[in-house]
Write a structure and sequence with these properties.
This protein is α/β, with parallel strands linked by helices. About 50% of the residues lie in helices and about 20% in strands. It contains eleven helices and eight strands.
């Protein structure tokens, strides 16, 4: 473990030294790595790519992009959208004593829009002002980093999912499996990169996918009934909107003795505007998802807006319709953000 940590720090220092280094004068002969980087760096030990542009920054970014493309577009896009490297490391950061160093390596890779372990090894400026950059990945060093990231995530997944049945069938359990799915997504990306860096290195290793944990999370959600009560509701329109939103997220609603309750207060009041002939209604929805066993508010949610109409009844109906629409369209997204932020690190 200590050797791996020191290796990460060495890689970071190398990145900064090469990024800050001077550019050789274009009057000299063109370096051989420009036409073929593998004439300088052994293909069995390194993965390399070259980029060029009118500015040094453009050349470096192109080189790193070309290096990333060797691993396939799916690697770059999946690692940036489904689960960023920063999240992957933070989720397992307790095992890294040099967390700041590892974070810097991850932030650097994200800022450069490339893979962890990639670095700019050399830069050359030609006589006509064109910059050339060499992006390099040391197979052995990068392989160790990705292997360690995978193992750290597996350890975190084990902690998240090793729950007594009673604790598993709860919002906390759902959140844990929700996070485990994200970590498993990350491991799929890391494992693919690791295997491309060193073919056959992952042979025999069976990693669960994010969907495996999402299926379990969905089953947990079905076993968590949420009782909904709404004060000042009209024709159960607000309660119905919340029920539809929760059902779409996979939860079960109803039950008077449920551990979880969604307590909502809906209010409307008339407001007036000078020289405005319309009747206006301001509505407020205050909702709290509560764990009744502890009285803890798990997720507070508030929306408010105003609606106008030629008469007061029309304004009230418009306000109800607006509230229904917002709840159905936005409550699940807000709940998803809550689940992500509440997930254990």
């Amino acid at each position: 473990m200590l050797k791996i940590k020191r290796l990460v720090l060495i890689i970071i220092l190398e990145v900064f030294f090469f990024a800050c280094g001077s550019v050789p004068n274009g009057s000299g002969a063109e370096p051989p790595w420009i036409s073929d980087p593998y004439t300088v760096y052994n293909r069995t030990a390194y993965i390399a790519a070259v980029g060029y542009g009118p500015l040094r920054d453009a050349a470096e970014k192109t080189a790193l992009t070309n290096l990333s493309s060797i691993f396939g577009q799916s690697i770059t896009s999946e690692s940036k959208t489904s689960y960023t490297y920063t999240q992957a490391v933070e989720a397992s950061s307790a095992a890294w004593t040099e967390k700041s160093a590892m974070d810097q390596a991850v932030k650097t890779s994200v800022a450069m829009d490339t893979l962890i372990g990639a670095e700019i090894k050399d830069v050359w400026k030609s006589a006509d002002g064109t910059y050339y950059a060499l992006a390099l990945m040391d197979r052995a060093k990068a392989g160790l980093i990705y292997s360690e990231l995978i193992q750290q995530n597996l350890g975190t997944i084990a902690v998240l999912t090793n729950l007594p049945e009673a604790e598993k069938q709860s919002f906390e359990g759902f959140i844990n499996y929700y996070q485990a799915a994200a970590l498993a997504d990350a491991n799929q990306v890391f494992a693919t990169v690791r295997n491309l860096i060193s073919p056959g290195s992952m042979a025999g290793e069976n990693l669960k996918t994010g969907n495996d944990y999402r299926i379990e999370a969905a089953q947990i959600a079905k076993n968590i009934p949420i009782a909904i009560t709404v004060e000042n509701d009209r024709q159960n329109r607000i309660g119905g909107a919340f029920a539809a939103a929760l059902t779409s997220a996979g939860f079960r609603t109803g039950g008077k003795d449920s551990r979880y309750a969604l307590r909502v207060n809906f209010s409307m009041e008339e407001i007036s505007y000078l020289n405005n002939p319309y009747r206006w209604i301001r509505y407020v929805v205050d909702a709290s998802l509560v764990d009744t066993s502890t009285g803890t508010v798990l997720f507070p949610y508030t929306i408010n807006d105003r609606e106008g109409h030629a008469n007061i009844r029309g304004a009230e109906n418009s306000a109800l319709s607006s509230a229904e629409t917002v709840i159905k369209e936005k409550y699940v997204n807000a709940l998803g953000i809550f689940l992500t932020r509440s997930a254990k690190k």
